[in-house]
Amino acid sequence: MSEEQESIRHPVAGSLLRITAVATAALAIYQIFNLGAYTGFTMLTSQYIYGLLAMMLPMVFVAIPAGRGRRVDPTPWYDWLLGLASIACCVFFIVHSNEAVDEGWEYMAPQHVVYISLLTWAIALEATRRCGGWPIFVVVFAASLFPMLAGYLPDSFAGISTPIDLVAIYHTNSDESLLGIPSQAFANLVIGFLLFGIALQRTGGGKFFIDLAFALLGKVRGGPAKVSIFSSGLMGSMSGSVVTNVLTTGPLSIPAMRKVGFSKTYAAGVETCASTGGVLMPPVMGATAFVMATFLDIPYGEIALAAAIPSALYFFGLFIQIDFYSARNRLKGLPAIDLPKIKQTMKEGWHYIFVFGFLIWMLLFMKQEAIAPFYATALLLVINQLRKHSRWQWKDFKEFAEACGALFAELTGLMAGVGLIMGALAVSGMSGTIANDLLFIAGGDMLVLLIMGALTSFILGIGMPVTAAYIFLAIALAPALINGGMNPMAVHMFILYWGMLSFITPPVAIGAFAAASVAGSSPMKTSFVSMQMGSIIYFIPFFFVLEPALLLQGSALEIIVAITCAVGGIILIAGGLQGYLPKLGDLSERGLLHWPLRALFVIGGLFLAMPYNPYVPITETMLFVLSFGLIAAAIGLTWVHRRLAPA
Question: TM segments (predicted)?
Fold first, then answer.
């Protein structure tokens, strides 16, 4: 959320957000650090999650108006009423949590509990609408009502029709809906990383990473575009939001790209692709990665480690494309005199790298992913207060708390809505049968099922947040692929990557539209450029789902071979897309051979990077022969044309 948006928020809303943010962080610390062992009171999981909802759901109605925009005027009476009702419902379930467990309220509850559950359901839907907009509301509303109509579907998709009262109590009392995986991930993992990300930005981490990128890469060929990749990758890993990333780094990187000769459209496309990849970059990825860790029941550190190679391949593909594009168009870097000095930059911001390293150490070596971000945040704030030039005043602490409160509230509303989708599939019995239905439709062919999943994930990513799209397919599609023999980590990562593609692909391309607004370019043209620039991300999920060694799931030799082939293939694909390769020069100078040569390099690179897999009807020998033959033919034609062309 931008500072401008914060500055127009009504003072009452801002004060309440600050108070509830501190209370939410305190409750999370109490539960995650198991302080109940010292106080004698340990909360049930349901009590803890409803405690968070009791604080953050009212903030949705206080801070986000029923219409569009941010709260500027005083909160109207009906929003106060909704806020108080949400508190009352959550407190009721907190007080009666033991009774709910003992008497099995998720299947049968007293009539007054049914009424309170219906009210809680309605409040959660309205919170989802305010936080996610009408598209996600329509999806969640339809999905949450689905159990009542499940019995009327065709036989192959039919579920169990369930009365509305049983649906309501299941949504509020089972650990599959409002208390399900999305809320559990938010409560146990996301809160700490949100605190860390906001603290990093507010203490000047964003400026440091941008300055560092300019100092390292600003003067090289196409430097500002490479700066965009470097800085957006680091910023995106902190914010977890593509649009926030674009609006943070874009105002600096896009004008710099324009200064050295990039067009407005191309500069905006580069920023879009870089910001999209940042959300997939460890160690701090988007909220979906934490949900994935909860789904797979593995430490978040393993998710971050598995995401490292695919993320690096994506940014490598972007970097190489920009280098080739710059070489082909003879674009230079910025003058050294206009760039920050690396020594001075590191002197002012060394502690950000130190804190990042500390976080990675706690995640990967100490295996403390739940408490790691709290320690990292505390360390960052202590170091910040010891440095005179960046020391916070009381006003800065209040702004930090308010920003945390706003983000907590927004994500709480979204997670509650996504939980309703999970609950609907569970209570209708569809979550256990839909995988077999999909396998039947695909005829048992894993490759067909992968393509179906990719398209479905992409379409869902257009109309709803990536987390919601991921969870739906993690329930519906992932079991079918895993039962077919595919690696669970690879399958879930595949779904996540394809859900992110809607940010760069027309007609929606939210990230491209945000970058176009910064660059002053055509949104649709920008989205097509970003799709071309980021085209490597369309292939990488298929690479790693067919070859889990790219997720570090295999022997050392398998990992080395897979990475080597992928890197070589990406270089050739980038060369074909940009029409330039080292030693061969500008392929457009090859006359009529221009487009055939580019196609040969792209296809040859795909065959080189494509791993052998029993699900693909091509043998390992055929893959090698095809890739080697196409690449050799392209290089040979280029060499012959150069020898025969007039001087």
Answer: 12-33, 48-65, 77-95, 107-125, 132-153, 181-200, 266-291, 303-322, 349-364, 407-426, 438-455, 462-482, 494-515, 536-553, 559-580, 592-610, 622-640
